[in-house]
Amino acid sequence: MKRILVGGLCSLVLNSFLAAEDSGAFLGLSYQYGSVKFKQDLNMNITTPLATTNTPKSIREKTSMNGAGIKIGYKQFFGQSKWFGLRYYAFLDYGYSNFGKKVLPDEDYYVHMLNYGVGLDTLWNLVNTQNGSFGLFVGVGVGGDTWIANGKEYQKKQFPNGKANYTNFQTLIDAGLRTNFHKHHGFELGVKIPLLQDEIFKDVNDTLRPNVATTIKENLKTDIQRRYSVYLSYLYTF
């Protein structure tokens, strides 16, 4: 009986080695759902012949973001059992959000997001069988965010000297569960967490004179950030 158990265990371990996931180039597609936050701080100093008043105003909004992503790269496993590996890749994510009429006075405020860059993941195969593998991945990505938003006419009218910066540096953490089966096919359930907030518009000491007796000085700062993105991916290994 002992020999049978030892023999079965050795056979299972050997089959795991033989069925270990292979290195190779891959292409992945994903559906993503997450959250995005908008933050805007406005400070107005209104000066008239009678008085000077300070009028601060802040907007804080959060809404959902739907999108998709593509990832292409190479995964490399080490050792005979191939339980540990690295994955190098380039990625591009797209997301869309609509904040409704909470930001602009007369229309919905919407944004299109492009997040792109390169990434490095550590791969940990916890289970290797003859039919496939199951494990975890943890990694980081660096690149940029580009935001495409409406409301530019409103900005130009209200803040004529303001400066827009819709492209910013970004870094993120990427982690989740992964599986690979029949050598070529894989699914992943993961989450991306961007670490940096993007400043997309800033106006400092912009002066408006609605009439000869009134002077308005404005300071405005607008930030936006994708808070997180949960995604489901299909990957094909060549």
Strand order of the largest sheet: 1-2-3-4-5-7-8-10
Net shape? elongated
Number of domains: 1
What's the order of the H and E elements?
HEEEEEHEEEEE
Quaternary class: single chain
CA radius of gyration is 26 Å
Which structural class best describes the helix and strand composition?
A: mainly beta
The strand count comes to 10
User: pLDDT average, as an integer?
Assistant: 88
Describe the biggest sheet?
8 strands, antiparallel, barrel
Topology overview:
Layout: H1 2-18, E1 24-47, E2 52-78, E3 84-98, E4 110-128, E5 132-149, H2 152-158, E6 163-164, E7 167-181, E8 185-194, E9 198-211, E10 214-237
Walk me through the structure:
The protein has 238 residues and is mainly β. The chain has one domain. The protein is 10% helix and 71% strand. The chain has helices at residues 2-18, 152-158; strands at 24-47, 52-78, 84-98, 110-128, 132-149, 163-164, 167-181, 185-194, 198-211, 214-237. Strands 1-2-3-4-5-7-8-10 form an eight-stranded antiparallel β-barrel. Strand 9 (198-211) and strand 10 form a beta hairpin. The longest helix has 17 residues, at 2-18. The chain is elongated, with a radius of gyration of 26 Å.
